[in-house]
Structure formats: structure tokens, C-alpha cells
Amino acid sequence: MSAAAASDLSTQAQTAGLLAKDKAGTIAGDLRGMMSIEQGPVFLRFLGFTTSLASFGCVIFELINPTNLVHPVMYVLYAYIACFALSTTLFEAKKEWIESVGPLASYQEMLATHCSFISLMGGRGLFYIFQGTLWLTFADSLVEIVQIACAGALVFVGFLHLLAHYGIMPHEVMQRATHHAEMASGKDINGDGQIGAAPVAASSPA
């Protein structure tokens, strides 16, 4: 084989390799674009995002607390909680924010593939409740107010996500609670001029 022919074959092989790499990147990008993440309204996403950040902040508080040095094994549990908290923020943040940071997008895709429950509001709701129960393991008395507050917030957000997964949004929960409270008390609690007005049903999308 002549040197020219060998050079031509080498060039063709390099070109084929580049095309294969580009095609693989395109397929990966298409799969990422097809990845479906169920998200609720902005207010619910904001609650989930901030509650997860608060959980992470509580972990930092516990890590710098010198009294925890006598229980070093608890630091492993703190690491788990921190990882769980940061992971859930990825599914409450705007899709554009995550896609702009390559490593975060890849990590989110990995979670959605291998832990698909977290991409659904119902699954995240149960995950929030699970994180709340982890915080309750630290609350051995009412003095542990930080842990109790964090656990309560996570469980509350978890239940809201479960309701939203089945089409019951937070504002509908408030309407129904107000309706029953007005019926029980006989007072106009929300100031709409009516007592026990029936909740307005959410209109289904066209």
C-alpha cells in the first residue's frame, strides 16, 4: 500500500471517528431533551427548592456544632441528608439553569434514569417525607428545635407534592380548608362576603 493511500485511509478513519462522536453527542442531547420531569406550579417549586436548601443549611449547622464530635458516626448520616437535599433542588430548579451547567445536567440525567421516582412529584413528595423522618431521628427532645422545624417543613412540602401529583394544588387545599372552617364556625373567614362558599374547581387544560 502506498504512503498516499495509507494517509487517505487514516484521514477517513479520523473523519469517521469524529462523525461517530458527534452523532453520539447528538443522541445523548436528544435523550436529555426527552427526559420528562414533572414539576408543580412556581410557588410549590419555590417551597421545595428553599426547603431543600434549608435542610442543607441545617446540615452545615450540625457539622460545625462541636457537641457532635462525640458522635462521629452521625456525620455519615449528615452526608446522606446533604446529598439528598442538593439532589432534590435539581428537580425543582428551572430546566434552563441546570442545562447551563454540564455536570449538574449529567447528574440530574443519571438520577432520572436510575432513580426515576424523583422525576415525579409524587415520588419527590415521598422523598421529602423520607428526608423529614431522617431529621426526626436527631430530635430526641423539644430542645432540638432546628431539627424539628426542618423535619416539619420537609414533611409539609412532601404532602403538598403528593397532593399536586394527583391534581390537587396548594391553593385548592387552602380553599377547601377555608370552606370547611367557615361551615364549622359560621363566619366569613376569607372576607369574600360568603360563608362556606364552595371551592372553585380547577379548570382542566385545553
From TrEMBL:
Entry keywords, A to Z: Membrane, Transmembrane, Transmembrane helix
Keyword Transmembrane: yes
Residues annotated as transmembrane: 42-64, 70-91, 111-130, 142-164
Protein name: Uncharacterized protein
Organism: Polarella glacialis
Higher taxonomy: Eukaryota, Sar, Alveolata, Dinophyceae, Suessiales
